[in-house]
Amino acid sequence: MYTFTARRTAATAALLAAGLGLTACAGPSGGRPAAAVSTPSSSAASGTVPLDTPDAKPALTLTDQNGHPYDLVEQTAGHPTLLYFGYTHCPDVCPTTMADIALAARKLPAAQRRELRVVFVSTDPARDTPRRLKRWLGAIDSSFTGLTGDFPAVQKAARSLGVGISAPVRHKDGTVTVSHGAEVFAFSPKDDKAHLFYTSGTSQQRYAADLPKLVTGETP
Length: 220
What we know:
The protein is an alpha+beta fold. Helix content is 28%, strand content 28%.
């Protein structure tokens, strides 16, 4: 396990000192979790982290849950966008994070909800087929976009944002460990750049309070 690349902000340094980093989740190939270990983080570390230098969206084209090519930069241009790297067999942090965002998004007015893009990029593309992504996201929010494809491309995109992910490791007992950063990046519709990210453990209430601002291009 290793911590994600240090970011360009003093706030992040404090988070790293508190122990924020990669989340490692293990589960058998059948999909039922065998164990889960999350990097510890205090409640004070849960929430938004501003970026001193805004990050551009990664240039990334993968396959969406409908089996169609999806150009992240092109298809989210001008839209408020939340971007997360994770995988569907994750037993805890990934489904919790997506569910919290979904609950918060449902509180937006319909017009704002239609503008919001939530993109889930798989860090376990061998198991996360488009069909599985569609079924998994459909149980959370069918408007979310799931992307899967070339792992090196996914890893490169994640690293461009300072997010560390490792290739899945299959063990002799059939379990698979997938290590990934658990940050949610919020991209503004005004300049298509991320001015902040959310740490693992951010509450549904925090997302609900911030989304109305994010969709209009404000930085919470």
